[in-house]
Each structure stands twice: as structure tokens, then as C-alpha cells.
Amino acid sequence: MRRLLVGLTAWSVLASVTACGSSDPGGKDTAGSSGGTTAVKVGVVPVLDVAPIYLGEKQGFYADRGLELELVPAQGGAAIVPGVMSGQFQFGFSNTTSLLLARSKNVPVKAVANGVASTGEDGADFAAITVRKGSPLTSAKQLEGKKAAVNTLNNICDTSIRESVRKDGGDPAKVEFVEMPFDRMPAALDGRQVDAACTPEPALATVKAAGGKEIASNFHDVSPDLTVAMYFTSEQFAGKNPELVKKFQEATAESLKYADSHPEEVRQILTTYTKIPATLLEKLTLPRYPAEPDRPSIERLAELGERDGLFEKKPDLDELLP
Q: Measured between alpha carbons, how far is 313 from 135 in angstroms, rounded to an integer?
């Protein structure tokens, strides 16, 4: 509970700062007509979800539109949102719940492109609740009174874990969430620092390779077509730089399409920005990279956020979505 209150307080501070207009996340777009390029910083999370933007950069989809990307790793969407609002990043990648939470706090984030979606298959998703080898836990309900690792608090991991526990007949309020980066979770499970973890790929493959197992498909439990994350900017930056935003949207859409049709390249690009061993590449479960967000699944996340007390008021999806 203390961690939850601290997180909400941080969001309140961010909301008050951005509402007062103290940050200036960028100037006018200078790309295109002059034939030059515009340097663009994008906050990303080092997981399989962002493979398309790395592939798109490699294939020249962004350079073709006059954009020179600098991809900056961060621990999670909750950390990237303040970076975008302060102007540290022009764009960011964030799980959908963190964006909904920002909107509920009057932080003017604006999704500009889709990111990643669930596979739609229970037990065969690209993320799961996992436990260590030999763990006595076999179901989400058994997480009552246990510690579960999430990359950042108040995001899609804890929201979806709560829903898995709830669907299994358990009390989600009895789960204790522990914050840590995804790449630390396999070792934390093995060392019994936590009892379970929210592990998207490649952490999922790493846990399984060590003999761990999954006990629930938490993203699928929210919605089979769950829009897990999106790329976003601030309303202020979008208003000042409509042409730059359009170029980023077009390049990202092309990157998503390319990733969906080139699965082996998705696996290979992952080795350039994560620590996954090459021996695990073929064992990865790939997500889907649809061109558009799935609004019903985002509405479901908003409902769960309200139910679990994450939002003081229901976020306006029309203000958030492209």
C-alpha cells in the first residue's frame, strides 16, 4: 500500500507540473522540406514488444522520412511518461495502463501509434505469470499473500495479475507487488526474492529455460485481443509538430507491418538491445503487432483500473487514442 501511495503521489506531482505548462517538450519540426533530418529521442523498454521500432530503424523506414532515431532504454512506461512530458523524449513507448493512469491525472499524453498486442492464445502468449523451478504454486489464486515482481508499479503488469487472481477465485488485494526490471526477474525467482513474476519475452523464455513454469496468461486474462502498449507523445509536442508526428506514425506503422511478416528478423534484432542468449531465440513466443489499437480491450483496462482504485476518475479514451 505504501508503494501504491508513493506512485500515485508521483503522478499527482507530474500532473500539476504539466498542467501548469512548465515543460516545453520540443520546438518546430525542421524535417522534410529542407531535405535535412530531425533527431528524435524515443523512450523504450528493452523487451520483445519494441522489436518493430528497432527493425524499422534498421530498414530505414524512419530515415526515409527524415527522422534520425535515438532509442533510449528505460525500466517501464511509468518512467517514460515523465520523460516525454519534460521533453527528455519526443516519443515514448508505454504500457496502456500507464497511459490511462496519466490521462486520469490530467497528464496530456497522446497515443500516436500502436505498439504490441497479446497473441490471443491462453497458455501461449508472449507474457505470463511465472514461478521458479520447483515452486508449489500452480494457479493465480495461490498468489494470495505472495510477492509478485512487476517492472513498475501501477501498470499493466499489476493490473493484469490482479485480474488473473480474480478470475481464478482469489483476492487480488492480498498480492504484494515488488518493483524490478524485467531482466532481473528470472534471478529473483531463482533466489526466492519473489514468488512469481510478470514476464514478457525474453524474460519468459529465460525463466522457462531455467525450469520455471507459467501459471497464468495475465494479458490474455484481461482480453484475448489486449492492446498491451502504444507509442505516444505529449499533446503540446503534437500540436507544435504535426508533420513530424505524422512521419513518426507512418514509419512506425510500416515497422509494425514489417515485424509481423518477418518473425525471424524480430528474433535476431532482439539480441542487439537485450541480454537474451542466442540459444533461446527460437523458443520465444512472438506477440502480434497490429496496425491499430483494440479499443474494447483498452476500455477493459480502464474498467479494471477503476475497480482496483488506480484511477481517481475514469480516463477519457477519446483524448488518449489516435
A: 39
Range of the domain at 131: 127-222
**What local confidence, expressed as pLDDT, does residue 35 receive?**
56
Note whether 276 and 51 are within 8 A (CB). Answer: no
Grid cell in block for residue 20: 501548469
Question: Is 213 in the same domain as 231?
Answer: no
Q: Which candidate, 73, 113, 112, places its Cα nearest to that of 89?
A: 73
- What is the count of structural domains for the chain? 2
Q: Do the domain assignments include residue 139?
A: yes
Q: What is the pLDDT of residues 47-78, one digit of tens each?
A: 999 999 999 999 999 999 999 999 999 988 77
Closest alpha carbon to 241 in 90, 80, 64, 114: 90
Cis previous bond, 202, omega within 30? yes
Q: Output the nine-digit C-alpha cell for 265.
A: 528478423
Q: Which residues contact 26 (CB under 8 A, 6 or more apart)?
A: 87, 90, 236, 237, 240, 241
CATH number of the domain where residue 139 is located: 3.40.190.10
